[in-house]
Amino acid sequence: MTASSAVLAALRAHAVRSPHATALVGDDETIDYATLWQRVELLAAWLRQRGVSRAGLWGDNGIGWIVSDLAAWHAGIALVPLPAFFSSTQLAHVMERTALRHVIACGDRNGPATPIDAVASPLAGIRLDRIRVADTAVPLPPDVSKITFTSGTTGAPKGVCLTTSMLDAVAGALAARIHAAPGMADALHAHFALLPLATLLENVAGVYAPILLGKRVVVRAGAGIGLHGSSSLDVPTLLRALHAAQPGSLIVLPQILRALVLAAEQGHAPPASLRFVAVGGAATPVSLLLRARALGIPVFEGYGLSECASVVALNAPSADRVGSVGRVLDHVRVRIDDGTILVAGNVFPGYLGQGHATQDGWLDTGDLGHIDADGFLHVTGRRRNVIISSYGRNVSPEWVEAELALCPTIAQAMVIGEAQPSLGAIVVPAAGATHDAVRRDIATANIRLPDYARIAHIAFADMPFTTDNHALTDNGRLRRDVIAARHAAQIDALYASPPAVPATGVLR
Asked: Name one GO molecular function term (predicted).
């Protein structure tokens, strides 16, 4: 290890004190803490012997992925998770940017690049691919143990360098926050890893935090749990998997929560064993949170950034306020500067090859928000997304989009209207919804909004917004420039006509 890791130390301690306690439940096997530690040590030693100092990690969710991740950490390797939902162009960019010569591959899936050779490791199902890349390696800041690439809102992913101390700090703060409420420590006996493990949030909150506490992690490949890529979900398959596993905790994105709520409203609820469902990655409408809780889904919203090694604030049973993203975790500090959220205390040393990205230790998140009198953080939108109308009114599109997300006829929507007299929306209708039904729902939503924030124009998208067509980031945020460019002709046509919504909000 390049630096002492609290997560690895906890894993080793559990292997000694509770060797037969279940650690991981996979598709084909269940292993205890003693076995997990043995595999981590064996693979780490083998990787050291082969002189690996920087490697990619490729594969579906599974025991092999977690073992490889922990072994690379133990061996002092700078690890680069390679998301399977990245495009081939994005993956090529990541491998070139990091000058990867090795990829740890789990399972039978072909790797992201044609290998020069592939060597089987001492552990079944894990191999080391040696690949040919241009010698463009850039130096890493000290003690970097992981480089996570976030697709953000543009096509070329950026490499966020993370240190061992940062990863440990988040895992420890999450463990303390979530398990602080009476009875929660026993209730959260198992975590169900739903999101791809290459997603930092699932990696840290869904694996490292449970390991710190000696809990079990249920980790199965996406096809077996209904998740394909990062944004396609088969709800019946997911519900069957959840009922079979009976987990205590789960991490979801807003779109997944919406699907679970709709299923529960039709009589297909997730298991009662769930005591903590964390939602993050993008703004979640308050009404959706309330609907979930009314159905017995214990959902808690949080907020984080890759640049802070994931979670910064989180609601929990011990401190909860719907409409906020929770109180700031103990390992970081947050302040508001002219409406913008700044974070310090667990901030990354920089993007790969770009150096420091902070001023005086404070990271400008680009997110807008405030902290209320009781210390709960509220996020209201992205500074660069703010729409300024031709009447000079500032509108955060996320606010209006959250209202549109409550419409049963709307699957997805992006608000537009920069320098225009009124707002418009590019809408993906829900399955079976007619255009007229969408218009009626938007008219109803408009009544809840002030006049300057109402939708006056509607364009209908010809396909959903997904990661596969580059309309969404890997954590579900809209790529606004991509969507706007794709629908440029429709947008021009919309604003060639007068606004279609009077002050009453009724569409004509």
From this structure: medium-chain fatty acid-CoA ligase activity
